[in-house]
């Protein structure tokens, strides 16, 4: 089928198989940590704080990491990060098994995982272009990669919720540790030919980071999308960190109810990713970003208004569908428009805007929710989402106007118009 054309490439197929198994374990661990934190503290603020600690390295280090990755083998870096993540999962499992787990240790281990993930995400995003021989299939590969991520996000929490309520957190953490075995095996079977970027003797990571920022500043069509990503990550996307409280406080649910919300979010994101996989070349991705941002804000307002569990789950599907469409459109646009020599550095700004800003948003949203309640916080987030979409619409209108003014139609064509 045309929608799965990227899987014809052996390297991408191996990558997809390994990741699909490993990500199931990752989502089981995430849902177990979220519920464990909320059980230990009974605090929305601590939910946001643990998320902030685990994702803050993407904000602090991403530009430096992009410069670091651009001059090195992305494949080798991905192998190293997977080994380190496996070790982190083993330590977390032992900590829970020994009974000395606490919010403090969850923060320490979360920060360590965040540092490793910051290198892994940038390296993996930059490697993706080397896994597909025909660059026309790169948008399809990006969409399918997102589909795998979100299929795991849908299935992983459902399995994790069952295991969590039946056997406890330890089983979820141990399964995540085991899930790294297949991804390391599939990585060992790849034969990747990367385009090597030669460095001068005077090259430094600091200079590389500066050059990457200068390139981004000269590319407003890319920079504007990163700004949209940052605003969404700060004020809208952190709704995911509130899902445990939505399940427990608004609908009097338990672990299984929480897993339903996580699975609903994963279902919506997977539908969005499949829709992106059907993307045809030449489509205007920036307008996809615009409409997705608007749908995300409206759906959040409807989620805040929902009185019944089923309707809340449906609106959660809608929010995540729009979020996936927005994020994947921005990712695809950057991957296909950034110069190869700067790709990792520009992707590092995307990662910073997505994963780096998100923990700050989670911290802010958690604090706001403590003060004004979950429902009112969702109303505020949805309203800001709509404002972000309207602001981007205004920017696009002005940008098109400037281009038409700078490059007017020929006189003969203007008369015919």
From TrEMBL:
UniProt keyword terms in alphabetical order: Cell membrane, Membrane, Transmembrane, Transmembrane helix, Transport
Residue ranges constituting the Major facilitator superfamily (MFS) profile domain according to the UniProt record: 219-417
Cross-referenced InterPro entries: MFS_dom, MFS_trans_sf, TM_effector
Compartments where found: Cell membrane
Claim: Signal is one of the keywords in the record: no
Entry keyword annotation includes rRNA-binding: no
Pfam family, one: MFS_3
Main location: membrane
Bilayer topology annotation: Multi-pass membrane protein
Top-level taxon: Bacteria
Membrane-spanning residues: 44-65, 77-97, 170-187, 222-246, 258-277, 289-306, 312-334, 346-372, 378-396
Entry-linked PANTHER family: INTEGRAL MEMBRANE EFFLUX PROTEIN-RELATED, STAPHYLOFERRIN A TRANSPORTER
Full protein name: MFS transporter
Organism: Sphingobacterium tabacisoli
């Amino acid at each position: 089928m045309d929608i799965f054309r990227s899987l014809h490439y052996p390297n991408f197929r191996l990558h997809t198989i390994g990741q699909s198994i490993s990500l199931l374990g990752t989502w089981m661990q995430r849902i177990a940590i979220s519920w464990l934190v909320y059980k230990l503290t009974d605090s929305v603020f601590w939910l946001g704080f643990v998320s902030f600690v685990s994702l803050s390295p993407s904000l602090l280090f991403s530009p430096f990491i992009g410069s670091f990755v651009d001059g090195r083998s992305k494949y080798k870096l991905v192998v190293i990060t997977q080994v380190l993540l496996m070790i982190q999962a083993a330590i977390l499992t032992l900590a829970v098994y020994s009974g000395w787990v606490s919010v403090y240790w969850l923060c320490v281990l979360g920060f360590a995982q965040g540092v490793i993930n910051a290198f892994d995400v940038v390296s993996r995003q930059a490697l993706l272009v080397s896994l597909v021989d025909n660059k026309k299939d790169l948008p399809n590969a990006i969409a399918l990669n997102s589909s795998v991520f979100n299929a795991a996000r849908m299935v992983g929490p459902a399995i994790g919720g069952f295991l969590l309520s039946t056997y406890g957190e330890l089983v979820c953490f141990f399964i995540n540790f085991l899930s790294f075995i297949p991804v390391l095996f599939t990585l060992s079977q790849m034969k990747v030919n990367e385009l090597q970027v030669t460095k001068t003797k005077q090259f430094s990571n600091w200079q590389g980071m500066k050059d990457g920022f200068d390139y981004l500043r000269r590319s407003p069509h890319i920079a504007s999308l990163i700004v949209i990503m940052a605003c969404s990550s700060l004020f809208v996307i952190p709704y995911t960190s509130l899902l445990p409280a939505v399940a427990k406080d608004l609908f009097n649910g338990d672990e299984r109810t929480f897993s339903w919300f996580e699975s609903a979010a994963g279902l919506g994101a997977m539908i969005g990713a499949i829709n992106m996989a059907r993307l045809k070349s030449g489509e205007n991705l920036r307008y996809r970003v615009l409409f997705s941002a608007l749908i995300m804000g409206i759906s959040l307002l409807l989620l805040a208004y929902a009185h019944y569990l089923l309707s809340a789950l449906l609106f959660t599907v809608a929010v995540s569908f729009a979020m996936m469409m927005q994020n994947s459109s921005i990712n695809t646009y950057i991957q296909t428009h950034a110069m190869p020599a700067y790709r990792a550095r520009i992707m590092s700004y995307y990662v910073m805007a997505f994963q780096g800003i998100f923990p700050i948003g989670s911290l802010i949203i958690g604090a706001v929710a403590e003060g004004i309640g979950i429902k009112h916080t969702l109303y505020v987030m949805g309203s800001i989402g709509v404002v972000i979409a309207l602001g981007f619409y205004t920017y696009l209108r002005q940008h098109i106007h400037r281009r038409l003014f700078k490059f007017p139609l020929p006189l003969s064509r203007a008369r015919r118009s």
